[in-house]
Prior knowledge:
mainly alpha; three-stranded antiparallel β-sheet; elongated
Amino acid sequence: MKEKDSAKTNESEKYWTQAEVANHFRISENCVRNWRNRGLFSYFRAPGSVRVLYLKDEILEFGGKHTTPRNGGDRSPSKPSKGKPGISSNRDWRV
Length: 95
């Protein structure tokens, strides 16, 4: 009996609902629906059902290709200048 329960758990972990995809990317469910309609990833819907399921692996792969980590990702941080701002040219500036 435990083997059947673990098979059901493994099967359900392969798919995400629309709400789970939205939570993963921190976007609205409508945005996920728009992406689906544009064909950015595949989905499964049982005949006669309104529930839409997405392959978890495909969603994670999509996120890896089309998103970047916050604050620019793996770029080296730039050091802020510590000096006072200077005048860029010797022009006579009038206010």
